[in-house]
Amino acid sequence: MEISVMLAKLAGGMAVSIQIFVLTLVFSLPLGLVVAFGRMSKNGILRAIVKTYISIMRGTPLMLQLMVVYFGPHYLLGIKVGSSYRIWATMIGFVINYAAYFAEIYRSGIQSMPVGQYEAAQLLGYSKIQTFFRIILPQVIKRILPSVTNEVITLVKDTSLAFTIGVGEMFTTAKALASSQVSMIPFVAAGLFYYIFNLVVAVAMDQTEKKLSYYQ
Known about the structure:
By secondary structure, the protein is mostly helical. It has a single domain, classed as MetI-like (MetI-like fold, Orthogonal Bundle). Helices cover 81% and strands 0% of the residues.
């Protein structure tokens, strides 16, 4: 197989990996903030439920979670699922997994803020919602950005786990090409794709951190 053909097929798989990456961030980042609020809730029952959810998501492999989301409806509920459900199961699995990690990152940032910030905002007439979104959250984002960057970079590599339920992302494509050609070249090419993808993400996050440096 010509190199150009192989790269074209890998690029197709990379497009799926990018789709998983982008959609996971779009949904897990805001969901993580909601989960963080639940984790810090004064309601003991809600706090315990959220804490259990986070513990399960962080304590079990993402690969296993993907399999449960995909096979669970059939084996647990008797619902028949088609092949089109694969990508939906992938997105659900990734989003609920990463939301748990982002929730703990948010929580650590929010709880690190001095109480005086809230008191000063109250004296200035800000409501609790205004205080959080106008004063607290911008500073929290600056503080947690390095931790978020680590998770985002990990997400780039974790997209390869979608092969567990047969989603044709880049690693799945590389594995199929390597098997048909009896060659390591597709894996090397896939590794370069992942490295470049991660490098672009790391540079983008670094630039974002520099733009937020005025909070220092």
